[in-house]
Predict the 3D structure of the following.
Amino acid sequence: MKFMKLGSKPDAFQSEGDSIRYVATELSSDIVVLVGDVKFYLHKFPLLSKCGRMQKLIAIANEENKDEIIQDVPGGPAAFEICAKFCYGMIVTLNAYNVVAARCAAEFLEMYETVEKGNLVYKIDVFLTSSVFRGWKDSIIFLQTTRSLLPWAEDLKLVSHCIEAIASKASVETSKVEWSYTYNRKKLPSENGQESPWNGMRKQQAVPKDWWVEDLCELDIELYKRVIMTIKTKGKVSGDTVGEALKAYAYRRLPELSKGTLQGVDAEKAMSLVETMVLLLPSEKGSVSCSFLLRLLRAAISLGCGDTVRRHLIRRIGSQLEEASISDLLIRASAGGNMMYDVDTVLELVKEFVVQAMTAHIDPLLENNYGDIKKPRRSISDASKGMVANLVDSYLAEVSQDPNLPLSKFITLAESVSGFYRPSHDGLYRAIDMYLKAHPGISKGEKKRICRLMDCEKLSADACSHAVQNERLPVRVVVQILFFEQVKATTSSSAAATPDISSGPTRPMILPSGSLGSSRSVTTNTEDDWDGIPTSDELKALRGEIAMLRAGEGPSRSTRGEIHGPRSDAERAAANKVRGLLMSKKMFSRLWSGKEKPEGENVSSSDTSGSPGSSNFEEIRSTPSRSRRRPLS
């Protein structure tokens, strides 16, 4: 730390208790100066020679025949004592801790060059320019001490000059950093002494680009804000580094932010910090992690920050939502609500992502409040859209366990990403299954609505196996999965073997039940059969059907009897019902045309471009892979 010594005489100030200071000399004091709670017994001549204000005050005291002067000196008794010692020519040591108070007190006492050459104001200004403002840590200490000396430090431009000095040092190239700094975050191998020497000579330690981040965490929030804004104005520090600085400061000043809870904190200070962090966010996309932005949003909601702050965070998070994790999105609902999680906020984030995927429009209001927002330069990739869709699926699986989650919110959130392509719907199936498990009392119609969200063709083999054994799914969904399993099995077998069309008579298509494809032999199925929950016997029969599909081509009746053995009447009835559902020509047309929806109800399904709804069954069965099979009548 830099320091400056003034004067040459030994310090002769002594104390009597805590409230009396005097100069030990043969001459008795002839003036008493009361500063705060401390009385200084001094002599007029040393004060008159260097203090313009004391000249005026002593003249007034002489006219009024008084020997005591009461003054409210900035910096208090300690600062006044420094000035008094300077007047007596005693040794005074100035450093970054006391120089601000001494400078403000000297200004108050009018210790200018016009009173005497080489006066205290001039000497302190030289010390600040040549030493304090040239040092990194001295500048930070100096700036921090200005808080208790406002508005004097502000009026004397001490604050602005110090901020400029700090910002200039933070903006220099790392190769030019020659001063000491605090860096305990992620030390480089060279800083830990782990880097091997080259040709026997140790390389010069590299300075990290965010070397200044930790030292600035010592500053008060208002001073920190001004320093960061000045650094950003210079434009020499990357947005990533500024983002790291904001994160480090927020976690240092509000440790609860990193823990996800704000219980027991000073709400006013916490709100000020969150709003300041949002205001200082760099404009570059990805300069601040999505996790940190979501923590700020969670805090803003909890603390009741303004709508402008909340909207700005939603916009920023929406631009990089694919980076979010499930734990970050699980924002607890307010105490007054009946739901566990704040699903509405997550829905806003997803909608913002969707909007930004479609347009690069910038809200003029937010652009005015946060002038550093820039128009996105590139569109959101399909990979990012798929990541967000999978993220929503996983989020729905978590919040579905809340028994108070309305079906409408589940469907709205799922439909918000229905236009994003993803090759598998396993995540969505898991979310639907979790919702059905946590809400066993929903109606058949509600089950139809939620099951329409997924595309059964995009379920993996494991998901299909689980779905066929799932007693919570309607029969319609289970049969639809079996149907697509049959299509896959038939397609794969046709691709594996392509016999000569002219050789031999054509063989009838074998359906899972083993019977010929005649719709006339199938009994009519009611809507209750389609939408009802399958019984254990029906599930057993369905599992048998899908097992045969996995094995390849369906076995004959005689073979099936050998496999399953004798069946009870209930098992045979269930099997016949399942075969009827599988063979129903009405069911096939419904599956392919998607016209089974009730009148006036829209069917929402993810990735409709990949759905077979645009074709009918007659077209499918006339494809080359089916050309050798007998058409259904």
The chain has a mean pLDDT of 79.
